[in-house]
Amino acid sequence: MTAPADLDLVTLRQSLQSLLPDVGAGAALQHLTTGAGAAAESRANIVVVGEPSTGKTSMINALLGCSDLLPVRPTASYIAVGGDRTSSVRAHYGDGRVTSGDLTHLAALLAEDADERPERVELTVTDPRLAGVTLFDTPGVGGTDSALAQLALTAVQQATALVFVCSAAAKISIAERKFLAEAASRIDQIVFVLSKTDKYADWEQVLAENVDTIRGDFHRFPPGRFDDVTFVPISARLAHMAAARGNLTLARISGIDELWSQLLRISAMHRELDELNTLRAIASAIDDAELILADRKQTLESAPEDDEQLAAVTRQITLLTEANSAWRMELARAIDTARDEARTRLRRRLNQLRDRYDAKMQEKIKPAMIPEIEATIVSDLCELQDEIDGAVRDHIEEITRHLLAGITGGDDTAATVVNNLPARGENAAEFLRERTGPPQDPSATMMGLTTAMMGTNTARMLITPSLAAALSVSAGGILAVGVGAVAALPVGVVWWRLQKKFRERASDVISLRGWINECLNSANGEISLDLDRIFRQASYTLQETIATAMADALQAATDARKDLGRARDRAAADLLRLNKVRTQLDPLREASRIRRQALLAGPVSGSG
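The line above is the sequence of Dynamin N-terminal domain-containing protein; the predicted structure tokens follow.
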């Protein structure tokens, strides 16, 4: 394979940022940090990570030849140490504030009793070896298996290389390996350090076990990632003793010189390492994106029951549409039956009222009782109005439920019509119940009742009666049916037509008998006409609504099937696009490998 001479990582990264969200794999972009693929910095960022009490800070102090430069006690801040011509300290806080000072301020900034600790501290010292290196000391409180591990990972995102510190006190832990796996997916160059070798006589055995554990952890590390892993054994205490005595033998045994050799080599090749880190992040992003898309495609391809369910819905609605005349006949039959039942109920109730008042008229009626009897007639007919009104609503609800159950295959999908009815307000019957008492003035009472009924029922009549229904079909193929509200069923319009009767008062018992019969007969005729009109309107509205709803449902099911096919096609196309990107990445990987081989011509401890 011929590798391109120029690795245009910025272009590749930009293409991935454009591609991955478009194919539904945007989560993979978390591997591409803000700085990945950008122009390399002028120095190497080397991040020191490890569990608490592994000696990370003591190691950095030993590297800088100053045993008390950085506080060795646990801290929640991470510290960046770089070189400059003058020493200084800059503290960065969570609210964006930055404070500056000299080295004497460092201990106060990180003191346990400090009022507020900074998130990070930037420290510069006059050490020429740090001219091209910045060392990051990450938090150790809670360890790499804690929430504070996120702070260390934040520093890792900007790292050129890692120094992973393990203590000779114990074998590398699962928590350490979990953190290492996350960091190793982003950083190409990792230097492994075994600290505190002066304290533990069996440190060589621990070192060998750590090497075997890392090489054999295929669950967390990809094959070949750490085949050449080695540890640099160090002792910060021996390094400080060597510096104090000028003892070169102790300095060599301490391992600090070997570690500096590793760090300076990283500094010399930091641009290439930044490039390799970018390639590693890009490769991880593509791997994650492939997994996401493969899972999407498998989900779609392994769900034929969804497709079959949609097809079944389509067939069901098609059959219902083809059987148009059948359900129209069923609707007509149901309407006729409901109308007949409502008329029968009306006649039966009117006959009961007629019999009651015939019996009443057999009693001895005094002229003073006439207004009270008239008021009772009004109250009874008003209650009859409400009764028939409720019966009509019940019939319409039952018809709607029956038809929708035939369409959807069950009763549970039809909403209760009554629950969707608008508030009826105060009707004449309620007025009578709440306001009628022992009449002081029968004439005034009759006039008040008549006025109340006229106001209530005129308002009812002015509301246009309609039956609105809306059906919808979910893309998953399950019909969700909703029945709209009956805006108004003004059976009480009869009172508007009977107002003349209410204004004509009976003057004697004989005229009262005739007045009662005329009211009952008129109520029978007018309410019967009203029933015909309401059921006719309900029939028209249901026919139109159901026909439209079934056509919409058929279209929705058809569209859902098309969407399923398009989604599968998109998933397949996305995989092809990612494979193309992977093909574009292969020559870049090859060029990086050749460059890496050239740079690492000699053995480099701790590389992986």
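Note on the example: The chain has two domains: 9-85+126-302, 305-433+484-569. Residues 400 and 542 are 8 Å apart (CA to CA).
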